[in-house]
Structure formats: structure tokens, C-alpha cells
Amino acid sequence: MSRATALTFTCLLSIIVCAQSPAEVDLAIDDHFSIAGIYPHLAMYNSQGECGTGAVVPYAGRLWVVTYSPHFPMGSDDKLYEITPGLEQIIRPESVGGTPANRMIHRESNQLSISHYLIDEDRNVRVIPQRELPGRVTGTARHLTDPENKIYIATMEEGLYEIDVHSLDVTCWINDRNGNPGANPFPDALDSQLPGYHGKGLYTAQGALYYSNNGEHGRAAMTDPTTESGAFARWGGPGQDWEMLVREQFTEITGPGGIYGAPEGEEDTAPVWAMGWDHRSVLLNLLDAGDWHTYRLPKASFSYDGAHGWNTEWPRIREIGTGDDYLATMHGTFWHFPATFSLGNSAGIVPRSNYLKVIGDFARWGDFVVLGCDDSAQKEFLNTRPFKSEHGAPLVSNSNLWFVAPETLSTLGPALGSGGVWLNDDVVAGDGSDAYLFAGYDRRMLHLGHRTETRAVFDIEIDREGNNQWEVLRQVSIAAYSYQHIIFTDDERGAWVRVRPHSDVTGVTAWFSYANDDPRTTEPDAIFDGLATAESSHILGGVMRGLSYRRRTLGLIAQNSDNAERPLFELGPELTFAANSDPGVRGQVWQAGAPDPATLPARVDGTSILIEEDGRRWRLPINPHQAEHEAFGEAIGFARLVREVATERDMLNVGGTFYELPARNAGGFAHLRPIASHPFRIHDFCSYRGLILLTGIDADAQGERIYKNEEGSAAVWAGVVDELWRMGKPVGMGGPWHNTQVVAGQPSDPYLMYGYEGKRLRLKCDTACTVAVQVDPSGTGDWHTCTQFDCKPGVLVDYDFPAGFNAHWVRLVSDADTTASALFVYNVDVDFVADAER
User: Fold this and answer.
1) Rg (Cα) of the chain, in Å, rounded?
2) What share of the chain is helix, strand, coil (3-state, %, to 5)?
3) Which residues share a beta bridge with 243?
4) pTM higher than 0.85, yes or no?
5) Angstrom distance (rounded) from CA 311 to CA 331
């Protein structure tokens, strides 16, 4: 065997060992305090406005993790962490911080490129100085012409560098737009003209280097999620600028080789997968044999939207030790993603479950998938609203890792998603829409409407096997300026669906709404035992706030229902209580208290909860199971209404239901999503070291997740935000009219419909009139009449929506003045309905 052959064999062997070792590591995890896969001692902190997890990579027998600050192209106090199989957290002295999210294992030298570091198989860490490679590094990729010796690193502001993996010499081909303090060290490099900013992905395949960004500068991007934003681009070599391919927001770019790059020997043929989104749906672009193809997927959560690009972090597609079944994360869904995804074999992308955590990266390590999260940002950025506590954010940013068994990824929130191929778009005769996912959901429907002066005919086509062979499933004829909803049957199955018009049509909406059957009951899981209910006579409440960078603890001012004293406690990583008499700390915690209830925009009005924000009104159901014997007027609760518990998205607790509430720049209340309904009297909630903590504990009850001080005068419940799904299936009832004087032609307030099963409408008017039921499928104010009722005076209309029917909002419009009551009932017992109508 020649020396060259021997070196190649040795290198290949080391790659195989490295590739296999993450799942073979024996983790000694039982020696540390943990809750539901969160190990509080592993929490990561910085002194900046955000501490996100940029990369998580098993390598050389350890888990390597980097965190990032929000905009620090020349370094920060973020760290490079080396975590041992015994879960010892080692802060590497070479740490330089910054805003990193890049990672790749270089096959030939068997080095890990992560942030500004190159790490070898003996865990030696070398640093590329940030003065030589300035920028917020976002991606590492294989070199086009010298992959044995060089790699590329790109930055969030379009910078592109070439690195010699042996000498660490840096060549700049495209300047980072942040600029560099002092003289520009790269005067010969190009200044990019690529639009957008906030780079995310980088990947080499089929003779080019591909790059993505998902943001846009400007005032419009800060407020309107439909603003033109982002870019997907390619680079062909030195002397070239990024060439824009698609003017949309894109994030992840990868392929079958994953963290190693395109598989060896397949560099010119391996497909490229690029994920992004627009205001309609998730985008999945495929490069196969030199041609690009576009697919679309539903959004479970719209909190990732925002034309500025800040809300997405780093969605990924990665191998997780389960063969060809990769894991993808995008817009709140864990996806099964087949490693064989290609034009001729595109089937297999289906949802695992929905999730609430904000995840920057993940990897298989031992028996677990380790998720690196973005949990608690000291600076809430654009995620402000008038009725949130001005000081509700923690005093220091922190995030943590979440260790979950692979099968857990399929057991979180029931899969739910919606999205469109067209949203008030003009389409041309014969042009089919992009392919939209048709597989993986129990209930699937299509809202299809247009605003053309003549009747329009559409073919609904499916690719049954995912082999790019299309056939007509249905033909739909829709009258001028009209709408139809199509609920697909169990027999109508396939991998992908698309819509094709027979003629030019204007103002077309084709919006899909999907959901899996929700197996939950209205009973909360036993992990919530000990939380206070309406029957609790002695409640342990309290206001909470994460304390300073130096302390790294949680402050709790206890508020007991039968005690005027408000003692201050400090909770450590293992949730042990220590009394604290520091008035400065007390003041910092007390500032985080909920606003005065009189200033809140939520109130019970009639049979529903009325919400007002930014001059708009919405109505939400009330969960009658929250307190069976209470009047509706007491059902809102008595403390915290809304708080950010994952970076740049809020949780809303109102009327006995937890909701995910996107930032205002991502649609806000218009894209509200129910998570779980519950019977609990929750006083406060916050994030801490990757956990979510609740106060509002029954002092006389016990529970496996309840942590109290020795005297039993203060307590918290601790878990993971994604355990809130286990509180119970979303239920509710109420309506926009309750003995309301209705004006002809004036629509009611929008009433939430999205995310509920078993929908019924009970409508009664005191005069003869026709009432139209209008739905907004997308949450964008795109209203369509789905049915109407001729009401007779005093006669109840009792209507069950078809199984599988869903839209984001519903409203009612009468053609005549009348006095009316309308009750929407979602999974509520008939006895409660009768009580409410009385």
C-alpha cells in the first residue's frame, strides 16, 4: 500500500469512526439534576441582548457548542463549550465569541470548523483571528477547486472567505458588509450587490457555492411580513459576486452529505436542498441534475415570519442516527425528511409533531437528539406590545440544550399547519402552482377563491407517488367573485398537490389547512399535579425574573393568597430556595410584575374574550372547563397575561388557554395559535435555564414537578415549554354576538377558529335575515363567504362544520338589522353550552 493510499485509507477510516461515534457515545447523564431532558447546569450565558445556540456538533468524543450574541462581528463574551460524556461543561480558553452559526467537518483533515475555530481529532482548538475574518459567520462549505486543503466561510452580511485548513491563511473574495474597524484589510475583494441580508445557509454542490439570506433592511421589513425580502444565490468562483437565483427568504442549504458536504464522488451530481419561506408557506427548493424545482410545505407557526429575518434563527436538515430518515425543523414543525429526496423520489416528507422551542441546531449524541435552543433574550428586540410588562425580560440572556429521545420528536404538539400556493395572486391560464405537500395529515382541506368577473375552472392535480407524475384529482368550477372549500377524503391521497387554472384568473387564493387528529383529552397530564385550580383554598403565587449575569439565578417574590408578606427568594440551578433581603434585587424582580389589569386589552365581553391591539379587535373562546362553577366574567385569570418565554415570541394565557402569540412584526394576534386548554390558576410564568417555570401552586397538594422552600410558603412548577401541550386539548366556546344589536352589512369581530376540533355554530336572530358565515383562512384579512343561513325570528340555527374544516378566523354578516346571538362551540360538553346560552 502506497503512502498516499495509506493516508487516504486512514483518513477515510477516521471519517467513518467520527460519523458513527455520536450515536455510540455512552452518556453518564444520571449524575446531574435534570427536568424533562433539560440540565440546568449546562445553561449558557452571555452579557448581551441574546444568547442563542448557533451550532451543536458531536466530534472527537465530545459535544461542541457555540453561542452567539445578536450583532457582534468582531467578537463577544460568548463561549466555545466542550461537553464531556459525563455532561461536564468545559469553557474553552480559546473562546472569542461573536455571532456564529457555522459548522462543517472537513473530511480530508478530519477537523471541525465551528465559529472561528478549527478543532482536530485530539481536541486541539485553533482560532482564526476575527480581525482576519471579520463578520457574523453563518456557514462553512467545501471548496470548489481545492477541497482537500481549503474551505469557505460566509458571513451574515454576504462576506465570503477562503481558509487554508492547515495554515489558517485567509483570502477574502467578497467583503463583509459590516466593514472592519480601521483600514479595509481586503481592498481587492468585491463589495456584494446581493439584496437582502441576515445570511443563513452555505453549501457546495454541482459546481457552485450556494448562499442564502432571509432578511431585509428598512422600516417596512420591521412591520410588514409580506415585504419583499431575502435572497437565494450562487457563486461560481473568484472575481464573481453572488448571483441571485430567487428573491425570497431562505435559510438552510444542504444535501445528502449533511455536515460533511456533498458525498465524496458525488460532488457534481448530489442534490441540493434549500429551505425558506414567503408570506404564503414554507419553501423547499431542490436542485436535481442542474435544474431547480420548488415545493411548498405548511407553516405550523407564523411566529417565524418577519421580513427583517430575525425570528427564524437557523432551521436545519440533519441526520439524527435513524438511517435515511433525517430531521428537519422549519416554522414550528419537526419533519421527517428522507435522505433520498429528489425529483423522482420526493415522497416521505411528513410532519412528526409541532413544537414551541426556538431551535438553532441539533445533532444525535448517544441515545439522544440534542437540541440547541434560544430560550431567554434579555433584549426582546421588536417583540414589544403595550400590555406586556416593560421589564418582563430576564436581566441576562441565557439558553440551554434539550436532550430528547428520537421518538419524542413525534410526540409533542399534534401536527397542524396551513399555507398557500397563491394568496390574492393573479395567475395565468395553464400555469400550475408550485407543488404543495399533500401527505402526512389526517384532515386536509383547500380554500379556493378568486375575484374575476367570470366563472373560473381549476384542476386540482396530485403526484401520488412522489415521482413527478401528475394526474387530475378534481376539477372545480367557481362562479365569479366566489369561493369554495374542498375537504379531501381519505381516499384522495398522494405526495404532492397543485392547482392549475383553465383561464387567466385574478385575485386567486389557494390556501390549504391541515391537521392530524388530536389524541389529547381535556384532562391535564399528571405532571401538572399540584398546580392550583378553582377549588384550591391556599395558592402560592409569585412574580419571577431571571437575575444578573453575575448571579445567574432566578428571583421570586412570593405572593400567597392568605399572607400579606411578600418574601424574596433566589433559586439556583437545582431550584433550591434561598431567602434574599437585597432591596435592589427585590426591585428588579418586582418590576417584572404583570401590568395593572385595568390597562390590559383583554376583557370578557358577552360570551367571548375581546382583545384589542394596534387598533384591531379579535375575539377568543373561553374554556368553560377552566373553572366549571365560575361566571364567565371571572374566567380570564388573575395575573400574567403574556410574556416572552422563547426568543421573539410570546405565550398568552387567557380564558383558560395557552396560546402561542407571534411578535407584532410577524402578524401578532392575527396569527394566534392555541396550544392547550387547562383548569389552572396560573399566576406567573417565565423561562429560566431552558426551563419554563409557573407559579400558582396549591399549597396543600403535591406534585412531581413542584419545588417548594422548606417552610412550604413559596413554590414553582418546572418543566419544558413543549410540555404545555400536555395540559389538554384546546377547547372553548363563545361568539362575536351576544344579544347584540347587529347593523346590516357590518361584519362582526373576527372570532378564532384555528387549532380547534369539533366546530359548531348556534345562531339565533330576533328578526328574519340572512347571515353569511365568512372565513379568513390565512389570518391576513382575506375573507370569503363559506355558507349562509336564512334565519327566522327566534329559531335556533344549529350547524356543525364539516369534519376537517378549519380556517384561522370566522366572522358573521347579516343582510338586515337584527338582534342576534352566535355561539361557536369547540369540543365543549352540551351542558356547558346550555348554561352559556342562558
Assistant:
1) 27
2) 10, 40, 50
3) 234
4) yes
5) 10
* 229-281: pLDDT as tens digits: 999 999 999 999 999 999 999 999 999 999 999 999 999 999 999 999 999 99
In this structure, the number of other CB atoms found within 10 A of the CB of residue 45 comes to 22
CA distance 834 to 811: 22
Q: Is the dihedral of CA 183, 187, 193, 194 positive or negative?
A: negative
Name residue 462's beta-bridge partners: 471, 497
- Give the Cα-Cα-Cα angle 190, 193, 198 (nearest 5 degrees): 100
Interatomic CA distance for residues 835 and 828, integer angstroms = 12
φ, ψ of residue 44 to 5 degrees: the values are: -115, 135
Q: Which of 412, 462, 415, 460 is nearest to 437 (CA)?
A: 462
Grid cell of 306 as nine digits: 418577519
Three-class secondary structure of residue 688 per DSSP: strand
Residue that is written with C-alpha cell 419533519 in the block: 335
Cell 393568597 maps to which residue?
561
CA dist 435 and 448 (Å) reads 16
- Higher-pLDDT residue of 835 and 451 is 451
CB 111 within 8 A of CB 165: yes
Pair 498, 433: CB distance under 8 Å? yes
Half-sphere exposure of 777 (CA within 13 A, CB side): 32
Pick the closest to residue 214 from 274, 145, 152, 261 (CA basis).
Answer: 274
| Proportion of the chain above pLDDT 70, given as a percent | 93
DSSP 3-state assignment of 4? helix
DSSP state of 622: B
DSSP state letter for 382: T
Give me the count of residues in the chain: 838
Task: Give 416-451 pLDDT, tens digit per residue.
Answer: 999 999 999 999 999 999 999 999 999 999 999 999
**Residue 566, class by beta-carbon neighbours within 10 Å (0-12 exposed, 13-18 middle, 19+ buried)?**
middle
**DSSP assignment letter at 144:** S
Residue 382: all three cell numbers together: 421588536
DSSP at 40? G
Q: Residue 424 phi/psi, 5° resolution?
A: 55, 45
Q: Is the CB of residue 150 less than 8 Å from the CB of residue 128?
A: no
In DSSP terms, which residues pair with 272 in a beta bridge?
287
Order of all β-strands in the sheet with 208-215: 197-205, 208-215, 231-235, 243-246
Question: What is the separation of C-alpha 450 from the centre of its chain, rounded to a whole number of angstroms?
Answer: 30
Specify the pLDDT at position 381.
86
Give strand pairing partners of 660.
651, 673
How many Cβ atoms from other residues are within 10 Å of residue 29's Cβ? Answer: 16
- 165 near 150, Cβ under 8 Å? yes
- Strands 150-155 and 577-579, how do they pair? unpaired
Q: Whole-angstrom Cα distance, residue 202 to residue 729?
A: 40
Banded pLDDT at 595 (limits 50, 70, 90)? low
Beta bridge partners of 734: 824
Confidence (pLDDT) at 182: 54
349 phi and psi angles, rounded to 5 deg: -80, 110
pLDDT at 830 (0 to 100) = 59
Q: Own/partner pairs for 316-319, CB < 8 Å, 24+ apart?
A: 316/252, 316/254, 316/359, 316/361, 316/362, 317/252, 317/254, 317/258, 317/273, 317/275, 318/254, 318/258, 318/259, 318/361, 318/362, 318/363, 319/258, 319/259, 319/364
Strands (E), 255-321: 272-277, 282-288, 291-297, 317-318
Q: What is the DSSP letter of 796?
A: P
Residues 358-396 as b/e (b if ≥16 CB within 10 A, e otherwise) read: bbbbbbbbbebbbbbbbbbbbebbebebebbbeebbbbb
Residue tagged 439534576 (cell numbers): 33
- Mean pLDDT computed over 467-491: 97
Q: How far is CA 246 from CA 227, 289, 309, in A?
A: 15, 18, 16
